[in-house]
């Protein structure tokens, strides 16, 4: 509200929130984790560390609220493709019984559902590819079914 009161319009706020914040805002370089890892700059390292810290904090908070977790799933571009992030996020969560199979973690590329937990892990850890196209198609089918009283196969 403060920025709106100072004359910012909705488009500028959207630009700030969706394009200039997060990894890019902290690093000053990019929102792409691959670019940040390759840069080697202290600002990029700080952005990655902050991202990882927040991921661990939220996973821990969810585990506390639920009284533990049975499964931890990594998905989305970073979760599917960044073995280092998965390792760095899971290590501080070892107190929950999370242990990675490092070879499986390194081999996971986000092109298939893959278990990356060690045999002795109390929590299953998976890499799960996203499929936004399928989700969008399912949502469109539900909308069309509602508009037209049903769509074959809906």
Summarize the structure.
With 154 residues, the protein is mainly alpha-helical. 58% of the residues lie in helices and 6% in strands. Helix 4 crosses helix 5 (42-66).
Tell me what you see in this structure.
The chain is mainly alpha-helical and 154 residues long. The protein folds into 2 domains: 1-68, no CATH class; 69-154, Nucleotidyltransferase, domain 5, CATH 3.30.420.40. Helix content is 58%, strand content 6%. The protein has 9 helices and 3 strands; from the N terminus they run αααααβαααββα. The protein has helices spanning 2-5, 10-19, 22-27, 33-39, 42-66, 76-81, 83-90, 102-107, 132-148; strands spanning 71-74, 114-115, 124-127. α4 packs across α5 and α5 (42-66) packs across α7 (83-90). It is globular, with a radius of gyration of 20 Å.
Shape, per Cα inertia axes: globular
Helix amount: 55-70%
CATH fold-level topology of the largest domain: Nucleotidyltransferase, domain 5
* Low-confidence region ranges: none
Question: How many structural domains?
Answer: 2
**Radius of gyration, rounded?**
20 Å
> Order of strands in the sheet with the most strands?
1-3-2
Class per helix and strand makeup: mainly alpha
Q: What sequence of helices (H) and strands (E) makes up the elements?
A: HHHHHEHHHEEH
User: What is the averaged pLDDT score?
Assistant: 89
CATH architecture of the largest domain: 2-Layer Sandwich
Oligomeric description of these chains:
single chain
Feature tags:
about 150 residues, mainly alpha, Nucleotidyltransferase, domain 5, 2 domains, about 5% strand, globular
Question: What order do the helices and strands come in, and which of them pair?
Answer:
Blueprint: H1 2-5, H2 10-19, H3 22-27, H4 33-39, H5 42-66, E1 71-74, H6 76-81, H7 83-90, H8 102-107, E2 114-115, E3 124-127, H9 132-148
Parallel strand pairs: 1-3
Antiparallel strand pairs: 2-3
Helix pairs in contact: 4-5, 5-7
